[in-house]
UniProtKB/TrEMBL annotation:
Any one GO CC term of the record: membrane
InterPro entries per record: Cyclic_di-GMP/3'3'-cGAMP_PDE, GAF-like_dom_sf, HAMP_dom, HD/PDEase_dom, HD_GYP_dom, Sensor-like_sf
Record's protein name: HAMP domain-containing protein
SUPFAM superfamilies: GAF domain-like (SSF55781), HD-domain/PDEase-like (SSF109604), Sensory domain-like (SSF103190)
A GO molecular-function annotation: phosphoric diester hydrolase activity
Length: 955
């Protein structure tokens, strides 16, 4: 029966159950999520098709409406009654003005019932001019057919410049054109309104367009205009939903009006040109969609050539006299790519979650088994009559918890009776006695919890003085009845709880009510007639053991410990963020407290009257721990910047690659010269000289990148000379960019590859503007409610190569130095947003002023000595001395005690730090005490403080 080999491990069972349930849930959610996204994408495609149709309609309307207005006005012009060519040419300025008013019009013309004809064509395309053999400067061509004396048609071409000066006249005897035979003339003469023809190919210009015809107001002629719709092809190409989307504008006969590839739309047939038919494009997806009877805006799913497509048809209402529509076919794979990517991501997340929960389940099962083993050990101790050992384990499993409670009550029954008696007899302080007795009473009787309510002197209410376990007790109780019999019911009613209580009145010797003791009963103490009498008598005998102040103080101390832990956690996180500043947030508070203790304990001098309460000391400690909390916002690569070109990586490697390209170019030039018959010795000499120059120049650039020495003017000039070298770039520098990089490059003109670029450059895309994250540090900034007064660089970052290599000292640019200094701004802002209690209100001020100087030249507020408290000035010295002596900085070696004290002496002389506090720092030996605790042995040299004290006395 107890064979362990026939069972299954509880740990494995729980882990397996969690894994399977997570797998089922994750699969279901992924399936639902994928289909939801699929439906949304398909619906969005339908909306996009409708929007595209509206866009093309609007484009066509902007094309047709102005032309219709112009031709309707021309219907009233006297040109319709002109019966000879000179009179008609007199109206040439009006016809030219119509063409200039609408750039999409290619020609305007008039046909007469006797067969005469006049056409004005604008010459915009150089290819058309060449084909028509137009003279230099020709802007317009007038083609005319008039009747001669014998009634024969006479054709002439006239070329005009932009000012309508006649440049050339040509007789065209072979120009035969009878407008009366043209569809537009016939349709126009038979209708009083404007007639719109189907789109076709203009023979002269080879553009795709349509003709607008309008009978003159007196019916004496028909006016026509040719309007190009070539732009619709570009509109279609620009509005494709995915790279593989196929789109076309077709009429009811299948002729293609617009297609992204305009070369395929126009087809030569014999001596003329016509529009391509849809089946001639060879786009099967569009052919299927044209042949289908699908209507409406909802996309239809179909398959062509083994590939799934979503198709949509949208009519163009602008072409009111023709049945023209837009056909859109989107590859399903491209349209649903986002949904499938989300499905893959969800699957990966589900797999990671399953693995994680498997480990959690394994650990959870182990935690369930451990309490059972611990209880077995404790029961063995009880069997050995060891009742002083605590019995019980923590577990969320009901059975394990109940077993633990039963076994614990067996041990507590004996042990806690003795402890209660000992507390009552030995504890002299009331609060300690009540707290101890209440906790022991709750533990010994195994009740769910307890509380003590004391009678308030200023009211009849009972106020909570102490509580232990149980429910969340209200701060006050107003009991209607206080008699012994119904006191428990009144408490339960006042607490608005269904739990059972035992309430015992706390009376003084004169039987005046002092308060009540409330115990929340467990089921073991209840019986049908009420509370068990032995238990009631025991509680009544110990009714004076209610806690008054202990629990409250414990709660406050627990909250304080939690706050301290969170603050230390934040400080440790800031130190851990950079491997080069570890320990700074921990050492500065200790050094600051050392110096502050000396100021507090001073009995003479300027700090003889300086005192701080325990609350003020605690406020200072919190401020010291949080003095650099704003560093959590400082970019790590700026804080740890070890070279001038370093961002997220050292960009010297990019520059070295460019030198490698120039090195290879020297080699290529050598071999090309040799192949061209050049002198080998001279070519070799040139190659080696170029290589030597490249080696020397790269060594100079690399050395400048280190930033260890001061950059002279001639060094910066040499960088400019080296940067002027050119190398040839063959690859597109806009590929593989992040969104931010692409935005910065958007304003830079696109260059045709290959392009020669400077070896070192400050390019426009190196500038990173502030954008919406501009910090409010200018004193005139309306957002600046903290009193900051700092100079803000023009941009957030400048990654320019020459700009950074030319940094005069160190590795930080002006923008990066501001970014580091900004941490104190963020410190003040962050701390001011915290809902600090009244006794901690000065934490932001103490923490945020340690970079201010006594002469008012510090930051971020430019405060002077009189604007700062002693605690703030102490923080300034502690922060500087720790930074000077720290051995974990990448950009400097740790300074010795004497070097650090010497620098502080200069700062005291220049009124950067408080001179009196510096004197106390020296005379009290704080510098030596701190050094012995935190500095390396080689830093602990001898310091003669007498010169510094003499300088302070003479100041």
């Amino acid at each position: 029966m107890n064979n362990p080999g026939r069972g299954i491990s509880l740990q494995a069972l729980i882990a397996l159950a969690i894994m399977l349930s997570t797998l089922v849930l994750g699969g279901g959610l992924a399936y639902q999520g994928y289909h939801g996204i699929e439906r949304a994408l398909v619906a969005a495609a339908g909306d996009s098709a409708h929007q595209l149709s509206s866009t093309i309609n609007e484009r066509a309307r902007r094309l047709i409406d102005p032309a219709q207005s112009s031709i309707r006005l021309l219907a009233y012009d006297p040109i319709a009654q002109a019966d000879n060519l000179p009179e008609r040419l007199d109206r040439l300025p009006l016809l030219v003005a119509s063409l200039d008013a609408n750039k999409m019009l290619s020609a305007v013309y008039v046909g007469y019932p006797n067969g005469e004809f006049l056409l004005v064509r604008v010459l915009r395309d150089p290819a058309v001019k060449q084909r028509l053999q137009a003279p230099q400067g020709a802007a317009f061509l007038v083609q005319s057919i008039s009747l001669g004396e014998a009634g024969q048609p006479v054709g002439e071409w006239r070329f005009y410049d932009r000012e309508l000066a006649l440049l050339k006249t040509e007789g065209k005897p072979d120009y035969r054109f009878d407008p009366r035979e043209r569809p537009w003339f016939v349709a126009g003469m038979g209708s009083a309104s404007t007639v719109l023809t189907k789109p076709y190919v203009f023979f002269t210009t080879r553009e795709i367009g349509l003709t607008l015809a309008q009978r003159s107001i007196d019916g004496a002629a028909v006016l026509g205009m040719d309007a190009s719709v070539n732009d619709l092809g570009g509109e279609v190409a620009d509005l494709r939903m995915t790279p593989g989307t196929e789109m076309a504008v077709v009429d009811d006969s299948g002729s293609v009006v617009a297609y992204p590839d305009l070369q395929r739309v126009v087809v030569k047939e014999g001596e003329g040109l016509r529009l391509s038919r849809l089946d001639e494009l060879g786009v099967d997806s569009l052919n299927w969609l044209f042949a289908s009877d699908h209507q409406g805006h909802e996309p239809v799913l179909y398959q062509v050539g083994g590939q799934d497509w979503y198709g949509m048809r949208a009519p163009l209402s602008s072409f009111t006299q023709q049945d023209i529509r837009v056909l859109i076919a989107v590859p399903a794979a491209e349209l649903l790519a986002g949904a499938r990517r989300v499905l893959l991501e969800q699957a990966l997340w589900a797999a990671a979650l399953i693995a994680l929960l498997l480990l959690v389940g394994w650990a959870l099962a182990q935690r369930i088994g451990q309490p059972l083993r611990a209880l077995a050990d404790q029961v063995r101790a009880l069997a050995g009559f060891d009742f002083g050992q605590a019995v019980g384990v923590e577990s969320r499993v009901t059975e394990v918890r109940e077993l633990s409670q039963v076994l614990g009550s067996m041990s507590r029954t004996i042990h806690n009776f003795q402890a209660i008696t000992l507390t009552l007899s030995r504890e002299t302080r009331l609060d300690s006695m009540l707290g101890g007795v209440l906790s022991r009473l709750v533990e010994a009787t195994a009740v769910s919890g307890g509380a003590v309510y004391l009678h308030a002197d200023d009211s009849d209410a009972l106020r909570l003085a102490a509580h232990c376990r149980g429910e969340q007790y209200p701060a006050e109780l107003c009991l209607v009845a206080r008699s012994h019999e119904d006191l428990a019911a009144a408490v339960a009613q006042a607490l608005e709880s269904q739990a059972h209580y035992l309430a015992v009145a706390l009376n003084d010797r004169s039987e005046q009510l002092l308060g009540i003791l409330v115990l929340q009963l467990a089921s073991a103490h209840q019986q049908p007639g009420g509370v068990q009498q032995p238990f009631r008598r025991f509680v009544e005998e110990l009714s004076g053991a209610a806690a008054v102040a202990i629990e409250t103080r414990q709660l406050i101390e627990a909250q304080q410990r939690l706050l301290d832990a969170i603050i230390k956690l934040l400080a440790d996180a800031i130190d851990a963020k950079s491997p080069y500043t570890g320990g700074h947030c921990e050492r500065v508070p200790q050094l600051a407290e050392m110096l502050l203790d000396q100021a507090i304990t001073a009995r003479s001098g300027p700090y003889a009257d300086f005192r701080m309460s325990e609350i003020e000391r605690y406020e200072f400690q919190i401020a010291a721990w949080l003095h650099d909390c704003g560093k959590i916002t400082s970019p790590e690569y700026v804080v740890d910047k070890a070279t001038k070109l370093e961002t997220l990586y050292n960009r010297i490697h990019e520059i070295r690659t460019r030198f490698e390209v120039l090195w290879r170019d020297a080699e290529v030039d050598y071999w090309q010269g040799l192949a061209g018959g050049g002198d080998q010795q001279a070519l070799q000499l040139t190659r080696e000289r170029r290589r030597a120059e490249l080696q020397d120049e790269f060594a100079f650039v690399a050395n400048a990148n280190i930033g260890g020495e001061f950059m002279r003017d001639e060094d910066v000039e040499r960088l400019q000379q080296i940067g002027a070298r050119r190398w040839l770039r063959h690859f597109d520098n806009r590929l593989g960019l992040s969104h931010d990089e692409a935005e910065r490059l958007a304003a830079v003109p696109l260059q045709i590859l290959p392009v020669a670029e400077p070896l070192l450059a400050d390019r426009p895309e190196h500038i990173v503007p502030w954008g919406e994250r501009k910090p409010p540090v200018d004193k005139h900034d309306p957002r600046n409610v903290w009193g900051f007064d700092m100079r803000l660089p023009a941009q957030a970052y400048n990654y320019g190569e020459l700009y950074n290599l030319g940094i005069r000292r160190g590795t930080l640019s002006e923008e990066e130095r501001f970014k580091i200094n900004e941490h104190i701004v963020q410190t003040i802002i962050m701390l001011n947003t915290l809902p600090l209690p009244r006794h901690l209100k000065r934490v932001p001020t103490i923490a945020g002023n340690h970079h201010e100087k006594m002469d008012g030249t510090g930051y971020p507020r430019r405060l002077s000595r009189d604007d700062m408290s002693i605690a703030e000035r102490v923080m300034a010295i502690a922060d500087i001395f720790e930074a000077l002596t720290a051995a974990d900085r990448p950009y400097k070696a740790p300074k010795t005690l004497s070097e650090s004290v010497k620098i502080l002496g200069f700062m005291a002389r220049d009124q950067h730090i408080d001179a009196e506090l510096f004197r106390l720092f020296l005379t009290s030996g704080v510098y030596r005490e701190y050094g012995e605790k935190f500095l390396r042995r080689e830093q602990l040299d001898e310091v003669d403080i007498r010169p510094y004290l003499a300088a302070l006395d003479g100041a």
